Amino acid sequence: MQENKMGVMPVKKLIITMSVPMMISMLVQALYNIVDSVFVARVSEDALTAVTIMFPMQNFMIAVGAGTGVGVNALLSRSLGEKNFERADKAANSAILLAFMSGIIFLLIGLFLIGPFAGSQTDDIQTKEFAVSYGKIVCSFGFGLFFQIMLERLLQSTGKTIYSMISQITGAVINTILDPILIFGLLGAPKLGIKGTAIATITGQSIAAVTGLMLNLKFNKELHFSLHSILHPDLSVIKVIYSVGFPTILMMSIGSLMTYSMNRILKTFSDTATAVFGGYFKLQSFFFMPVFGLNNGAIPVLAYNLGAKRRDRIDETLSFTLKLAFAVMTIGAIVFESIPELLLSSFDASEHMLSIGVPALRIIALHFPVAAISIALISVFQAFSKSMYSLIISLCRQIVVLIPSAYLLSLIGNVNNVWWSFPIAEVVSVTLTTIFFRKVYISMFNEKPSLLRKRPKTDDI
What we know:
Layout: H1 5-8, H2 11-43, H3 45-81, H4 85-112, H5 114-119, H6 125-140, H7 143-157, H8 161-184, H9 194-219, H10 227-231, H11 235-266, H12 271-307, H13 311-338, H14 340-345, H15 351-364, H16 368-383, H17 387-410, H18 415-418, H19 421-445
Helix pairs in contact: 2-3, 2-8, 2-12, 3-4, 3-6, 3-7, 3-11, 3-12, 4-6, 4-7, 6-9, 7-8, 7-9, 8-9, 11-12, 11-17, 12-13, 12-15, 12-16, 13-16, 16-17, 16-19, 17-19
């Protein structure tokens, strides 16, 4: 069988071809997130706050899907690098079953837990009603999201990121088109308000999932799917998937806990402060999501070359990825510092919202370039099946440092002080990431990583 491109293509060209499609698709997704919130804000500020309240639950759904996908991605790419095609097929078929089971879990959450979840974050009756209406639909019909994520991960694992991009862009475009139609009742459609946003979301995800399935069946010839293999999984394969994926699920779920806790801290000031926090998350995704796309493109390359025993390609991948991530996040920081009023005006921000939001964006953006270093280096932990380090870093950053800092700063009585918890937490994060990266690299190769040496080595392992 012909050598996979992840083992032979020049590294810089490989990272570009692997990551750029995912970065573009992530940009489209980020743009959709912003446009989606722009439409919701036109309903009312309460509606924007409601979507912010449900963001931790949606992030938890993504955590389960993407975390499982990381486990599948690492196992599948490494199996291909080792020429273990039988194990690669088992990983792919197990992924389909795990996506379905995830959908069942969130169907139950959507039916029984959304009301209490929304009520714990707001005392406003209208805001809670909006949040429950939106959350029940998104959670109960989350099957499309899980299948979309998993099928896109299978394409990424074999280096076919262009098709993963097609799937994701298709879902985002459908979502964006349906949003104004269903929210405002255009083209003869019923005027559904915030429920229209939720229906547009699950419709886009479902169409993206169908697109991903078709692309896998047509173009992913390295993998072989069968209903028998899906219904009769190899439990040892699932165990390996979750040994890598579960720490990632926990790590991303910590993000949900962080946003939930921040919502509760900010509501002590006003629901407008909560809306600002939601607006920030939508805006920052325009820079963070492309870097995550770059990270996702680097993971299979790192995993494949670990299996193929090519340290030279691992070192070059890390160096190039780190430089690109830092450049993107530096641009993001400059934008947030320069035009925060313009960014917030897209959400139809009131004067009160601007008075809170402008200093918030400028303070939080200070940590963007530092965050780029952490994101780039964390790809090593995921690719080398050392995701526990990612979990420890995320736990320390968001739970041990960020939330306590935000709470203590909130006691001063000025909401502007709360935002400083983000730069404080990121300094801790990058320090831990660097320490763990050095430890993992030395344990693998018995030598310091080239990023920490004066002259990089290019020998094979």
